[in-house]
Amino acid sequence: MENTRAEERLSTPGDRSRFPHRPHITLSQESFGQFAELIARFMGSPTFILWMSVFVVVWISLNVLGGWKHWDPYPFILLNLAFSTQASYSAPLILLAQNRQEARDKLSLDDDRRVAAQSRADMDFLAREVASLRASVGEVATRDFVRSELRDQLEELLIELDHSRDPEESDQAQAKA
Questions:
Q1: Which of 44, 55, 50 is nearest to 78 (CA)?
Q2: Region Disordered: which residues (predicted)?
Q3: CA angle, corner 160, sides to 170 and 155, nearest 5?
Q4: Residues 96-111, buried b or exposed e (16+ Cβ, 10 A)?
Q5: Are 93 and 36 spatial neighbours (Cβ–Cβ below 8 Å)?
Q6: Contact, 93 vs 40, CB < 8 A?
Q7: pLDDT digits (tens, 9 = 90+) for 40-91
Q8: Same domain for 124 and 80?
Q9: What band does 100 get if pLDDT is binned at 50, 70 and 90?
Q10: What is the 3-state secondary structure (H, E, C) of the chain?
Q11: Surface-to-core class of residue 33, CB atoms within 10 Å of its CB (0-12 exposed, 13-18 middle, 19+ buried)
Q12: Environment class of 112 (CB within 10 Å of its CB; exposed 0-12, middle 13-18, buried 19+)
């Protein structure tokens, strides 16, 4: 019976936490990513470089010129350790910020491509519509064409009227004579 309980305990998943009494801290990827971007943005600023330079100058000055016991003598190994620790944390944070920016750029590029494809399709459609309208307009009588046709018809009518009046005028002229 005891062997069966041991097997059940081994085959049944239990509490995954090694330390169940500790509070569980959860960080969302989004909030940690925002934190990484904030740090990367600060570390890439002139303010950070200025404050780091001031910190190094003060550190070295206090360790070289100070009249008390120096906590980090000349090779400045503790300062080097601080820089190494800072670099070991800042490099992954900067890479994480770059990855997030790359993901945003990819989404933006995909959206730009989609909009460009839709714009291209719209332009092609409009070009076909304009071409069909031009073809239709070529078959439609324009105002100038109608005017010229009306003028021609009017001139023909006037000429016919003149010819039809000429015999009358000649008859009248003969009657007067």
A1: 55
A2: 1-20
A3: 130
A4: bbeebeeeeeeeeeee
A5: yes
A6: yes
A7: 999 989 999 999 999 999 988 888 887 677 888 888 999 999 999 999 999 9
A8: yes
A9: very high
A10: CHHHHHHHHHHCCCCCCCCCCCCCCCCCHHHHHHHHHHHHHHHCCHHHHHHHHHHHHHHHHHHHHCCCCCCCCCCCHHHHHHHHHHHHHHHHHHHHHHHHHHHHHHHHHHHHHHHHHHHHHHHHHHHHHHHHHHHHHHHCCCHHHHHHHHHHHHHHHHHHHHHHHHHHHHHHHHHHC
A11: middle
A12: exposed
Sign of CA dihedral 162, 167, 173, 175: negative
Q: How far apart are CA 153 and CA 160, in angstroms?
A: 10
Q: Please count the other Cβ atoms lying within 10 Å of the Cβ belonging to residue 93.
A: 18
Whether residues 104 and 162 fall in one domain: no
Question: Per the structure block, which two tokens stand in for 87?
Answer: 């670099």
Nearest to 97 by CA among 162, 51, 35, 4: 35
**What range does the domain containing 152 cover?**
143-172
Q: What is the pLDDT of residue 117?
A: 96
Q: How much is the pTM?
A: 0.51
